[in-house]
Amino acid sequence: METTEQIRDRLxxxxxxxxxxxxxxxxxxxxxxxxxxxxxxxxxxxxxxDDPALQLDYxxxxxxxxxxxxxxxxxxxxxxxxxxxxxxxIVEEKTxxxxxxxxEAVYHLYSMALRHGPVIIRLRTTxxxxxxxxxxxxxxxxxxxxxxxxxxxxxxxxFEGHRDLRRILMWDEFKDYPMRKDYVDPDxxxxxxxxxxxxxxxxxxxxxxxxxxxxxxxGPSVASAKEGKP
Length: 230
What we know:
By secondary structure, this protein is of the alpha/beta class. 20% of the residues lie in helices and 28% in strands.
């Protein structure tokens, strides 16, 4: 099978206006991937499936990745004169900036016909808030159907063109996306009728404060009087 770099070069030649970026994997597996621009993702997916040399006819896995905002510290070395008249000194100037976060959908593709793979492609949203729409690849690979629904459910990526995009693990009224890295567990779980352990500790703050226990009246209680006790 062609290398990831060769596939990238063929895609750029076939789709001159497309964005196809090689994302290297520094791990031992070295399974590099191709980041596709959303505008040409559907057309490229069709090409990967139908090209005679590739025939990537099966998507074995589609999953989501959350990349939150990240603080970046840029370091610049500057040469400054020595006030005492000595040799110039080299100092470091550090500046902080925020690298905006985004969400990704990652697809692992194989060829059942030619028995090779995987080829890994990635689609990336603009941000993590209001620009989280990506083209659905379910029309190209039917096996993406439930997996894109799961990504939508747990990460919040909206797959445009998906025929039945709705939650698949959480209920319809559920808010937020449990697989995002900044997700905060609720204090109580409405489906757990008898909270226990850590769930109980978090839920206690939502319980009404019980009234103080009633104090017995002065003098012997009714039960004590019946027993002949003072």
